[in-house]
Amino acid sequence: MHSPSDPHSLFLNHHAWLRSWLVRKTGNTFDAADLAQDVFVRVLTRQNNQMLGEPRAYLSAIAKNLMVDHWRRRALERAWLETLAAMPEAEAPAPEQRLIFLETLIEIDKVLDALKPPVRKAFLLAQLDGYTCPQIADYLQVSLATAERYVASGLRECYAIRFEQ
Hints:
Layout: H1 7-26, H2 29-45, H3 55-86, H4 95-114, H5 117-128, H6 133-140, H7 144-164
Helix pairs in contact: 1-2, 1-3, 2-3, 4-7, 5-6, 5-7, 6-7
């Protein structure tokens, strides 16, 4: 017999509810099915699977985090497709390169999201707006050493993605 907190029972007792909840949140049965599956994969792969007294709250919390990731990925995909559409066809990357670029963008987005806000801001000012460290220090009202540390931290995280793969 399975306890109500084990993943098998959790799935049997709450999968249908979770899918219908996700359909209401996403407006799409296919996305809801994929996200529900991802929720239960997370439950199965967690080291500590102690269920709380409210399994639906537990499952919906996991689902909300996965939905945020899902919508962010969709926004990046749309932006990437818009960029590709604006490129002259001769300059557009090959289809396999497009996928690699998109996956890299998604990884960079995850890294940037994990940075503390001032570090992220400093890094983006340097990389996207071309600010120098003295300009970043003035803009953020921090010392030059702090601005340099922020930019270096962002770079270190991006290099980690690049060279750890």
